[in-house]
Amino acid sequence: MTRQSILAILLLGMMHAPLPARLQTGVLRPVSFSKVNITDAFWKPKIDLVATKTLDACIYQTEVKTARIRNFEKVARNQGEKHEGIFYDDSDVFKALEAMAYSLQTHPSASLEKKCDEWIDKIAAAQQPDGYLNTYYTLTSPDKRYSDMSMHEDYNNGHLIEAAVAYYEATGKRKLLDVAVRWADHFDRIFGPGKRHWVTGHQELELALVKLYRTTGEKRYLALADWLLAERGHRHADGYTWSQWKDTAYAQDLVPVKQQREITGHAVRAMYLYTGAADVATHTGDTGYLHAMRRVWEDVVYRNMYITGGIGSAGSNEGFSTDYDLPNEQAYCETCASVGMVFWNQRMNALTRNTEYIDVLERSLYNGALDGLSLSGDRFFYGNPLASRGQHQRREWFGTACCPSNIARLVASLGNYLYASDDDGIYVNLFVQSETQINMRGNNVGIQMKTTYPWNGAMTLHVDPAKPDSFGIRIRIPGWLNGKAVPGGLYHMNTANASKMPVFLVNGKPVSSVMRDGYACLSRKWMQGDRLTWTFEMPVQRLYARDEIKQTKGRTALQRGPLVYCVEGVDNDSAAWNIILPENVKFSPVPHSILNEKVMALRGTAPVLVASPDGISAKTELRTVTAIPYYAWANRGKTEMQVWLPTRIKDLKINY
Ligand code: FUB
Ligand code: ZN
User: Fold this and answer.
1) Nearest atom, ligand 1, residue 202 CA
2) Which of 79, 263, 507, 555 has its CA 20 to 30 A from that of 115?
3) 96 C-alpha to center of ligand 2: Å?
4) 353-378 pLDDT per residue, tens
């Protein structure tokens, strides 16, 4: 029996599971970004910016301003020099390398490749004869290796593996891959069934090992990833100092992964864990992970996610607190956590073919994650609050610098998230102007998407099979189009009951489609040069939150297409906390510039609380209010900002 058919049987066995998705055989195959040429007016400049600015910033910080690269040099010199920085700083080197590798595929650059090779030589020189690699322990206390599961030795090298795979794919050069393989083999010799337990204090290695398995074909890596997942929830970490958190929920070690029902603890750890579990399930067909992940996903999306797709409201654990506790000004919403949402939701979509996951992915991508990167490309947000009195500012770097290279690698590899395929058809998940070729059962199909999304919903998809062929094109119908802000209804839209299904035209003639799990499926014999067109209406939508979220009570937010909006003082007479949006205030899209970024702002006339000339009382006065896409705030100096605005004067609270 083939792996495919085993997976088919396992998945069919889940037909009675409480999963809304229709489970089918196999999993979707996302089209790799290396096969997608993005020409999009929104994303292409951002991908270019990462190549020209963000990576330079990462390189400068990694090798000049901080000792991250110097630590590797010190290990290689072996002169008893001191480690500088934090024990997980190696991971930032690897994550930057991964982003550089992705960028090399879309922006070949001899100097960038030379820089990568230089770093790789230094990394390789720091690897110990037995394969061990970690600058902190090697310089500080080599005798304490693997004595504390919270110390990120495996997390760091998970990022090594991801970088190695990316660089090998970009250049065909094996040196870093060989380092990664040596480390993985070394780890595999020590940990595993019948060997030592390892309950990582920061998940990441699991998903990395699946990548290593895919690249090398070595099944041991997949088995090791599966074993690492199975280690959780059995108190194997007792006696190890990683229980510094005491609360084992922090690193999702409270119960075995397959029994998990609730989201707990540190948000980035959780996202990497579930991404790894989905990757393992993709290859093993283990439905236990899928069931658990659906339950946990519902807990995230139905009760614990911001309207921006950001997650992890509390700074104390960089993660989740209690259900519906979603403060705005104090929102933690780490950039890495939104990046993790993109990773995890893509895998869930591939496993289930359900667009709910892409709706969430799109929300996190365009809002919570993209907000982490400045319009200049060289300033970053670590946390992404939904309200500010002007105290927040993007920064050049951070002591814990996980976010800059994370957003860089996501944007550099954006093409990964647009298209997917299976044996029956092609899936269009995100709407980004681009071209690709997809192999449909041996027939090469050229795909070209034309759009100015997210500003406008008009779409043209050129479908160009090498030979006329029957297959499906499945277009994701975004949830927001039909007034469904988020799956589960944590937020709802004023257009909740309106159905805005677009009319699909092939070569100008209407064609019928069938809705399945959020996709409009168009099955037909596609001919060379076929042109599929449709338009998503993009009204300005008002959003409201469930009453359980006390911080958004009596408030409303604005969204258009996939973009969540905010009001920023710089566009509104220096203030954003005095604006009221009663139901009757209408907003219209207007072209607007934020530095060099051309956006559609939303403009309306709304009551604004202003002080009387006597300075004692205040009154409302109607003023023009401008809202901008949330991702673009905090690029023009320190200024007030709010995503959620009160609908009545009594809700103009100072604290929320
Ligand atoms: O622990 C490494 C990284 O630092 C985590 O992923 C981030 O959340 C930050 O805590
Ligand atoms: Zn981070």
Assistant:
1) 1
2) 79
3) 13
4) 999 999 999 999 999 999 999 999 99
Q: What are the residue ranges of CATH 2.60.40.1180 in the chain? A: 420-476+500-535
CA–CA dist 607, 517 (Å, integer): 42
Tell me, what's the pLDDT at 652? 85
Q: Is 58 in the pocket of ligand 1 (CB under 6 A)?
A: no
Q: Where are the alpha helices (DSSP H) in 88-218?
A: 89-106, 110-126, 135-140, 153-171, 175-190, 205-216
Can you say how many angstroms the Cα of residue 300 is from the centroid of all Cα atoms in its chain? 14
Q: Give the ligand with the smallest distance to the CA of 410.
A: 2
CATH class of 420-476+500-535: mainly beta
* Catalytic pick among 58, 402, 403, 566: 402
Burial code (b: 16+ CB inside 10 Å, e: under 16) for 306-337 equals bbbbbbbbbeebbbbbeebebbbbbbbbbbbb
Residue numbers of the chain with a pLDDT score lower than 70: 1-25, 239-246, 496-499, 654-656
Say which residue the tokens 């500012």 belong to: 393
How many whole angstroms from 355 Cα to the centroid of ligand 2?
27
Q: Is 89 in the pocket of ligand 1 (CB under 6 A)?
A: no
**What does the alpha-carbon distance between residue 259 and residue 233 come to, in Å, rounded to a whole number?**
9
Round to whole Å and give the CA distance between 638 and 609: 21
Which of 594, 588, 580, 595 lies closest to 648, judged by CA?
580
Query: Could you confirm whether 262 is annotated as catalytic?
Result: no
Distance 403 CA to ligand 2 centre (A): 4
Q: How many helices (H) and strands (E) does the chain have?
A: 16, 23
CA separation for the pair 515, 503 (Å, rounded):
13
CB count in 10 Å sphere of residue 140: 12
Q: Is 336 in the pocket of ligand 1 (CB under 6 A)?
A: yes
Query: pTM, whole model, 2 decimals?
Result: 0.95
Residue whose tokens read 């009160």: 646
CA of residue 488 to ligand 1 center, whole Å: 29
> Is 298 a catalytic site residue?
no
Name the average pLDDT for the chain: 93
Instruction: For residue 365, give the amino acid letter.
Output: L
Assess whether the C-beta atom of 318 lies below 6 angstroms from ligand 1: yes
CA-based torsion, 536, 542, 544, 550: positive or negative = positive
Instruction: From the CA of 334, give the closest atom in ligand 1.
Output: 8
Q: Which amino acid is at 118?
A: E
* Cα 437 to middle of ligand 2, angstroms: 34
Probe target for ligand 1 pocket from 318, 335, 384, 398, with the most ligand atoms within 8 Å of CB? 318
Residues with CB under 5 A from ligand 2 (ion): 334, 336, 402-403
- Give the separation between CA 115 and CA 103, rounded to whole angstroms: 13
Q: How many CB atoms lie within 10 A of CB 648?
A: 13
What pLDDT, on a 0 to 100 scale, did the predictor assign at position 19? 38
